């Protein structure tokens, strides 16, 4: 499968790309573009609390793709398992098709902003 270009991944009204399958995720990572992956669940209070901050970061860094993955979606399970996501929210960072930086877990705005700033350089 040929990777899709950056522009073919549709963002929602919050500037986020919603991923619900490993195929979609693999295609996005293969673009080599900088990515912030947000693993969340509707029942997760900290996930809901930090969401507005994540949306602001997405607005401030338009050349970084911010991805939202609902861990309750069956199609996200293989991604969650491969990346060993066990805490919500979890943020992972990718560039050039590979994971970069340290994961950020929980409600840690400063750490999240630092990692996004490094990724955006």
Automatic annotation (TrEMBL):
Domain of life: Eukaryota
InterPro entries: Thioredoxin-like_sf, Thioredoxin_domain, Thioredoxin_H-type-like
Domain Thioredoxin: 1-121
Pfam family, one: Thioredoxin
Gene3D superfamilies reported for this sequence: Glutaredoxin
Protein name: Thioredoxin domain-containing protein
